[in-house]
Amino acid sequence: MTVALSLRGDEAEDGLCDNQKRLNVLFWNLVDGLTSIFLTYCDNTSLAMRLTDQQLAIIKTTASQVFGEATGVWLFGSRVNDNARGGDIDLYIEPPIEDVDALVEAKLRFMMEMHKKMGEQKIDVVIRRPQSEADLPIYRVAKQTGVKLS
Question: Which pTM was predicted?
């Protein structure tokens, strides 16, 4: 979720995302009295996804089986935009697997299982290792604009 704070409603950031919402919060400030803060945020929980229920179930189940129960999976890119057409399936995955060799093996197995179950659909997978200090822009974009599946 992306949040922009402003003490006046006209200063809240616009254009953060396609599904932007605004919330006015009133509170009592000992110095100024009644104060209003506008929160602008991206509500990605209500975005429609251009995937079938069967495709969603396949993604969640396969990720859990291959990477483990504690795996976080986000769908991002054009498939979370109802106005877009076509497009590959972009997945951002945060698995609990630490070992690099095991992670590479799991990613290959995940891709193989996905292609077996979903056919020749183009699927892009971005994986962030646990405890990784790298903070690549794609990680932030995927989590901020994506929809958490599991």
Answer: 0.68
